[in-house]
Design brief:
This protein has 418 residues and is an alpha+beta fold. 22% of the residues lie in helices and 27% in strands. The strands form 5 sheets. Strands 13-17-15-14-19-20 form a 6-stranded antiparallel beta barrel. It has a 5-stranded parallel β-sheet with strand order 3-2-1-4-7, sandwiched between helices. Helix 2 links the parallel strand 2 and strand 3.
Length: 418
């Protein structure tokens, strides 16, 4: 196959490219220039996609003996990932820029350009597995299904941020590091091949906020917008320079002028952009057991309730009950623990919570297709989750397998039964 290897300049993507070469593929390396500041350098483990990283990627490509190019995707990155980051915080939501980067850059801009140039797949250094299996159809024939699964390396697993790419785009992706159980194994593979990035530190935090000061970055782009911090009774307990800089569940940096009456710590429990107000309250208000999601997508093998049938020839092994519910686990943070839940697909009607219609109870489109704007409804069946914020990604798993993904639109605690 002709494979485009996305080379960030780190050890993971370098080893992924090496493994693609050794598998016999015709490989071309590409570094994505995402920063508009061409003089940007890393600060230790902070930042990525800098001029320094481009040089490291080039040296790795030279060692592997593959062609190497730099593609300038900085404008696309600014207009999608950075713009989404700013608008989501401004709207009182909590975005995940890594999810948006996978959605708009790696598995949209990069993948579409690679396909247009005749490449069969894009290889990246993500820690996740694509499992291919044959399923039997009712007529006795077999159909190949590609599933996204967790990496055996629990500490580095990236299936959570990859789920947003969906089944169609991941069908043209390769994750050569999927079988590695530790980062040390990957570094050893790099050293064995003479790749100089074998000991390069991992990047972390937000790549376009290289100094780690997210609040400072937001203020530089959105400006100062003074407002009030209030408690759940509406009493002003502090001031802020912009409600956009706060997120549900936050405890530090609240700048409160007076302690709570009970002396307990207070957390951000709501951000109200319309009034530029931040609401703080006790920890117990952060616990939720219900989550609504928007822009949901489902992977192959998850059967939508009738009358919205799967595409012709599909086969499902995750089948909801008569009300559309099925059991699974859900995860709301990149390295959070999955929790048991009941999940179903819904079609939002644009009304308030509770007006959504289960997918199986809404007539199919006249052309037989699914509605484009599916939602997701989740009931946690174990312990409640704490500090789930609108804007976060929620990913549905069954074991190691990814079943679906959505963006959290609301999280709440169901009323106690009377």
């Amino acid at each position: 196959m002709r494979v485009l290897a996305a080379m960030s300049g780190g050890v993971d993507s370098a080893v992924a490219a090496a493994l693609a070469v050794e598998a016999g593929h015709d490989v071309v390396g590409v570094h994505m220039a995402l920063s508009r500041n061409r003089d940007q350098f890393r600060t230790g483990s902070r930042g990525c996609c800098s001029i320094e990283d481009a040089g490291d990627a080039r040296r790795a490509a030279d060692v592997l003996g593959i062609p190497y190019y730099v593609w300038d995707l900085s404008e696309r990155f600014e207009d999608t990932v950075v713009a989404d980051f700013l608008s989501e915080y401004e709207a009182g939501r909590t975005p995940n820029p890594c999810v948006r980067c996978n959605e708009h850059i790696k598995f949209e801009a990069l993948l579409d350009k690679a396909t247009a140039l005749g490449f069969d797949a894009v290889a990246t250094g993500h820690y996740a597995r694509i499992v291919t299996r044959e399923v039997a159809l009712p007529d006795g024939s077999l159909r190949t299904v590609r599933e996204l699964h967790r990496s055996p390396n629990d500490t580095k697993d990236q299936s959570y941020v990859l789920a947003v790419a969906g089944p169609d785009r991941l069908a043209r992706a390769m994750f050569p590091l999927g079988g590695f159980a530790s980062k040390d194994e990957v570094r050893a593979e790099a050293a064995k091949r003479g790749l100089s990035v074998s000991a390069k530190p991992d990047s972390y935090d937000i790549c376009f906020v290289a100094d780690g000061d997210t609040r400072g970055f937001l203020q530089s782009r959105l400006g100062s917008r003074p407002g009030s911090v209030v408690d759940t009774d509406g009493v002003v307990v502090g001031e802020h320079d912009g409600a956009y800089a706060f997120t549900v569940g936050q405890r530090k940096g609240l700048g409160l002028g007076r302690p709570a009456a009970d002396g307990k710590a207070r957390y951000v429990v709501d951000v109200q952009p319309a009034t530029n107000t931040v609401v703080v309250g006790p920890a117990e208000l952060l616990s939720v057991d219900r989550i609504a999601g928007e822009k949901a997508l489902w992977f192959e093998g998850v059967l939508a309730p009738t009358p919205l049938a799967e595409p012709a020839g599909a086969s499902a092994d995750v089948v909801p009950d008569a009300d559309g519910w099925f059991t699974a686990e859900v995860q709301v943070r990149a390295h959070g623990a999955p929790v048991p839940a009941r999940v179903r697909s819904i079609v939002p009607t644009g009304g308030t919570q509770g007006d959504e219609v289960p997918e199986g109870e809404r007539p199919a489109a006249t052309d037989g297709s699914r509605p484009a704007a599916l939602g997701m409804e989740i009931e946690l069946t174990g312990a409640p989750l704490r500090g789930v914020a609108p804007g976060q990604s929620v990913v549905v798993y069954r074991g190691t397998r990814v079943l679906g993904q959505a963006t959290v639109s609301r999280a709440w605690r169901a009323p106690a039964p009377r």
